[in-house]
Structures are given as structure tokens and as C-alpha cells.
Design a protein that fits this description.
Layout: E1 47-49, H1 74-91, H2 120-134, E2 138-140, E3 148-150, E4 153-154, E5 158-160, H3 162-170, H4 172-184, H5 186-199, H6 201-212, E6 219-231, E7 254-261, H7 275-285, H8 299-318, E8 325-331, H9 339-349, E9 353-357, H10 358-364, E10 365-367, E11 373-375, E12 378-385, H11 397-408, E13 412-414, H12 417-422, H13 425-431, H14 434-440, H15 445-453, E14 458-460, H16 467-475, E15 480-484, H17 495-505, E16 514-518, E17 525-531, E18 534-554, E19 558-574, E20 588-590, E21 592-594
Parallel strand pairs: 5-21, 8-9, 8-12, 12-13
Antiparallel strand pairs: 1-19, 2-3, 4-17, 6-7, 6-18, 10-11, 11-12, 14-16, 15-16, 17-18, 18-19, 19-20
């Protein structure tokens, strides 16, 4: 699932990109003689900081307890050369499907060159689908009851710059703590969202619940994911748009933050299982490839499972009882395509679990005199929302009353309404302002600087000071994306749609519900998209990276958990595609190969 993506459309005015993948693109010339890429991590351990007090925000640098890199072997260097070779073979047509040649009236037109091995891609596709099935990379089939199909994946891993990735992995602890601090600041939350709430009943309802809950005294559990795109601005983009650099020279490429997801964060489960599939594919294409082939790269999955288990443990210690307490998954009504990802998280927690819709909870959920939440006669320790982030997830007042009942209970919420509000686009825009961010990270200026460095320029469409940026967006819409305060993907506006929406809402109260953001200018890599019941597609792919984090805290002084995973989520899709749905095959899971 891609919640937000700011990829250039095929009509983008961004600078042309050389889409051939070769050794220069893979930074081979910049590698020290004995420094190959880092293999996809196989460890199941996660790294991060734990603290019993909140004021000490985790450092923005990578954790000091990370294992040192091992000395690279000749096999490591060979493996990387082979990956570069495979990607070049894509460019040269080795993996191309037999081309379809339409009739031509041109007497001199010749047939296109035949692929070197027409059957190679089909063999690789079959192997990848079988490997994905064996690893549990599956989702519900929308037309076949009880049927499953493979998740869309890339044939090859995605090459990422290790230094750039370390930068965003290293700040996740600071983001975790930041989200908690923001959630506790009632004045900031209500002030920042007042305008949007005045025109958006969904935000207004969440704020009304927030006002009635004593969040300062509750334990709050966050399973977060911060998403990034590589941004390599051209000198022409370094102005009002771009990244705020007014230099005439291109700024260096780095990851820029798309958003911080605080509710219903998916893909920690199935997203952790693709690396061994890629190892098998590379070994199939070149037997000399000697991969480290783990059963799964499940670090991010364990991170989430352990966080849920810790929340359960904290609740049980504070509310002792002889009976079993359960984890409650609040799920969508009807079809759930991402069931395997949810089940993997459930199984990783090791907890007894109920999966119930809001519709069923209306008649079965109750809170006793001690504030304990009960469902069907079972006491609930942790409520994990895998729904409730869109207006149509609530069927009127009865479901809003149910959400209030849950929020006021003693059960630990993941996320709480406070954490959910902290993830809105308007909050992200406010935190991109140095004077605002420094309020929450005043004890750690290094973390503040690191977070500001990954932000793109963002503007409230209703703010008079945004007028120059709005004018630039109307003149150069390819440089921007317009975001409403919505989760779930498919809500953003690009190009002429952006112009039309700005012109429709500018100067009206509805403008308060939109954020204008400078659009990233990402690089591309050639890859092959493998999707169920769809022919493979060789594309120039843009990839989004997600860093997983967890936090369990209460008030301003107690933080039992603040961790992040080294393993990252990678999702790729064809350049020019603005849709981001994994279920429909617009985006595909990938894995990271670090250089």
C-alpha cells in the first residue's frame, strides 16, 4: 500500500533522466576498492533506543550499538558486479518480452531486434511467483472466495545509497519521540487543525474525541513508518519549489520525507519477506551468485510484534487479573486484501487475538466501572486499529460513539486518537517550519537540523504568506503536489488537476484543508514488475523507502520503547504513475541493495 507518492507524471517538466542502469548509476566508481554493497540484512534483531524518560530525544545519528560492517569478501564484490550486469541486460533487451510489431506501411521498416533469450523472462517470472508464494507474499483474491494471489513485486532488488539511507534510518528515533510530544500538546494540535476542522467533519470529530480523553495519563503505543523518496533536484528546480536551496547549482541527492504514517501502517509483515526471493532470482540467472539466503528478513515484523506484546504486558501489569487479556484488531468491514500482512503481525505478537469490525463492536464492546474494555466477554489489553482512518470507515454517530468509548477506556490504543491527529498533513506542514519544530526538539538541536534537512517546502493553501508558492504552482504545476488531509492514497492532485483544485478552493474556507508541497524529483532504475495475471513489464521505476519505528510512552516523562528497524520497506512503480495501490498492481514490493 502506497499512502502518498510524489512521483513525476509522464507529462512532467522535470529534467530528462538517463534511464539506462550501468556501473555509473550504481556508484561503482565511488566505491573504495574493498567496499561492496551491503547485502540485505538477515538479522532478526532491531536497533534503536530505549529510555525510561522522554526528555532525552534519541540522537539523529545511527545507533552506537549497531554491529560494525564485516570485511567484504570476493564473493560480495562478485555478487554486486553480477547485479549490475543483470540490470544492464534489461537495458540491452535480454529480458524483453517478444515485441509486438504492428503492421507498417513503411517499405523500409525492419523488424525490431529479437530478444537474446525470449524465454528467460518467463522462467524468471515463474520462479519469482513461486518463491513469493513460498515466502507468504500473498493477498486475498478479489474475485475468488478464500483465494490468494501473489503480491506485486519487482524482479530485482532496488539499489539504494547506503549513506543516504543511514541518514533517514538514524532520525527515526527522533521522529518517534517527536510524534509523541506533538500528540500531547493540546494547544498545538487544536490550533494547527482548527482551520481544517472547520470545513472537514472527519477531523472535527477526531478533535472532539481528543478533547474528551485524558491522553496525558494514558499509555500510547505507536507503530509508525516514515516514507521517503530520493530527491535529486536540477538547478532549475532550486527556487520556490525544489528543496528551498536558492543556489544555481544542483543540490546533492538525498532522501526527502513524503509523510509520517501513524495509523494502520502496513507491510511490515509481507514487506519483510522479499529479500530471499531476490537472492534466489539472482542465483537462478547467474549460478556464480552466492547469496546469503535467510528464511526471511523479518526484523521489521518482529519490531511490530514485540511492540504489541510489550503494550499487552504493560497493561496486564497495571491491571492484574486471573483471566486472559486479548489483542483486539479493529478491521475493515467486508473484503480485506492485505490479510496476510495483518496475520503476520498478529502471529509475531504471540498474543491471543480478536479480529472485529466496528459494526460488530457496536453491540459487543463495553467499558466497566474501572475503565476496562470488554468485547464478547473478553478483556481487551491493546486495541490495534487497521481501519478508522477514512470518513467512510465510520457509519455515522454510532461509530464515532464507539471510537470515543474505546479511547476513554484503559486499553492501550495503537494508535490513540492523539497519535492519529499528529499524522495529518497539516501537522507535517507545521513541523517543516524551523520555529515550530524547535519547540518540540529544543533539547536536541542536531535532531532538529536533521529533520529539517529531509523536509520539502510545504505551504498551507489558506495562508497569505503562501501566495508566491501558489503562483509558482499555477505556473509550473509539475513542480508541486497538492495534498488534502486524508490517508489511504489516491487523494492527491497533480498537474492540471492541481491547477483546477487550487483555483476552485483558493479564497474559500475549503482552502484550509489543503497543503501544497514541492514535489520530489527522483531518479529511476530499470526493473521488471511481476504481477499476478498480468504480463511482466520492464519499466523505469521510482522507489519509495519506508523506515519503521515503534514507541510506547505515557505523559512527558515515561518512555518504555523507542526503536526503529534497520530493514526498510521498498515499493517501486513505473515513472509517470501517480496511483499507488499495491492491490491493483500500480506499485510493487521490492527490497534494498545498499551501495
Amino acid at each position: 500500500m502506497v499512502v502518498e507518492t510524489n512521483h513525476p507524471d509522464s507529462h512532467s517538466q522535470s529534467p530528462p533522466v538517463d534511464n539506462n542502469i550501468n556501473s555509473d548509476h550504481l556508484n561503482l566508481h565511488h566505491l573504495p576498492p574493498n567496499t561492496p554493497p551491503e547485502q540485505p540484512p538477515s538479522s532478526a534483531s532491531s536497533s534503536g533506543a530505549s529510555s525510561n524518560s522522554l526528555p532525552g530525544t534519541p540522537s539523529a545519528t545511527p545507533n552506537s550499538n549497531d554491529e560494525p560492517c564485516r570485511e567484504p569478501s570476493q564473493t560480495d564484490r562478485l555478487n554486486f558486479r553480477l547485479l549490475a550486469s543483470f540490470l544492464e541486460r534489461i537495458n540491452n533487451g535480454a529480458f524483453a518480452l517478444p515485441p509486438h510489431q504492428p503492421p507498417s506501411d513503411d517499405e523500409g521498416a525492419g523488424d525490431p531486434p529479437a530478444p537474446r533469450d525470449p524465454g528467460l523472462l518467463q522462467d524468471a517470472e515463474a520462479l519469482m511467483k513461486d518463491a513469493a508464494t513460498a515466502q507468504g507474499l500473498l493477498m486475498r483474491h478479489p474475485q475468488v472466495p478464500d483465494g490468494l494471489k501473489t503480491v506485486p513485486v519487482t524482479l530485482f532488488p532496488t539499489v539504494l545509497d547506503r549513506g543516504m539511507l543511514e541518514e533517514v534510518r538514524g532520525i527515526q528515533g527522533s521522529i518517534n519521540a517527536l510524534m509523541h510530544r506533538v500528540a500531547l500538546d493540546r494547544g498545538f494540535i487544536e490550533g494547527a487543525l482548527a482551520g481544517a476542522a472547520s470545513v472537514d467533519p472527519f477531523i472535527a470529530n477526531l478533535l472532539e474525541i481528543y478533547r474528551q480523553v485524558d491522553v496525558e495519563k494514558q499509555w500510547q503505543l505507536g507503530l509508525f513508518r516514515s516514507d521517503y523518496l530520493e530527491h535529486a533536484p536540477d538547478s532549475e528546480e532550486n527556487g520556490t519549489a525544489g528543496d528551498g536551496n536558492n543556489s544555481k547549482h544542483p543540490a546533492p541527492a538525498r532522501f526527502k520525507q513524503v509523510e509520517v504514517n501513524t495509523i494502520c501502517v502496513g507491510l511490515s509483515g509481507i514487506g519483510s519477506r522479499l529479500a530471499p526471493c531476490h537472492s534466489r532470482i539472482l542465483n537462478f540467472l547467474q549460478p556464480a551468485f552466492q547469496p546469503d539466503f535467510p528464511v526471511s528478513d523479518s526484523e521489521s515484523l518482529h519490531l511490530y510484534g514485540e511492540a504489541l506484546a510489550l503494550g499487552h504486558s504493560v497493561y496486564c501489569r497495571q491491571h492484574p487479573a486471573p483471566h486472559t487479556r486479548v489483542l483486539l484488531f479493529v478491521i475493515h468491514k467486508g473484503f480485506e486484501f492485505n490479510i496476510m500482512d495483518q496475520r503476520l503481525v498478529e502471529f509475531a505478537s504471540g498474543l491471543p487475538t480478536l479480529r472485529r469490525t466496528m459494526e460488530s463492536l457496536r453491540s459487543t464492546a463495553r467499558v466497566d466501572a474501572d475503565g476496562r474494555l470488554w468485547v464478547e466477554g473478553l478483556e481487551v489489553a491493546v486495541v490495534y486499529f487497521r481501519t478508522a482512518y477514512m470518513p467512510d470507515h465510520y457509519d455515522g454517530k454510532v461509530d464515532w460513539d464507539l471510537r470515543l468509548l474505546i479511547e476513554k477506556s484503559e486499553a492501550i490504543k495503537c494508535p490513540s486518537v492523539a497519535y492519529q491527529l499528529a499524522g495529518f498533513k497539516k501537522i507535517q506542514q507545521e513541523l517543516s517550519r524551523p520555529e515550530v519544530l524547535s519547540r518540540f526538539l529544543r533539547d536536541d538541536p542536531a535532531a532538529c537540523a536533521a529533520l529539517l534537512a529531509v523536509n520539502m517546502p510545504q505551504y498551507d493553501l489558506a495562508d497569505p504568506s503562501a501566495a508566491p508558492a501558489i503562483a509558482d504552482a499555477l505556473a509550473h504545476p509539475a513542480r508541486y503536489v497538492l495534498k488534502p488531509n486524508r490517508e489511504g492514497g489516491g487523494n492527491n492532485f497533480y498537474f492540471q488537476d492541481l491547477v483546477d483544485r487550487i483555483q476552485a478552493v483558493r479564497g474559500t474556507p475549503l482552502a484550509q484543508d489543503y497543503i501544497l508541497m514541492a514535489k520530489m524529483q527522483p531518479s529511476t532504475q530499470r526493473n521488471v514488475l511481476i504481477r499476478a495475471q498480468t504480463p511482466p513489464a520492464v519499466v523505469d521505476a521510482v522507489s519509495e523507502v519506508g523506515v519503521f519505528g515503534t514507541v510506547l510512552a505515557r505523559g512527558e516523562t515515561e518512555m518504555l520503547l523507542n526503536r526503529r528497524a534497520d530493514a526498510v520497506l521498498v515499493r517501486s512503480k513505473a515513472l509517470g504513475v501517480n496511483e499507488g495501490g499495491l492491490a491493483l498492481g500500480w506499485s510493487c514490493l521490492s527490497s534494498a541493495w545498499l551501495v
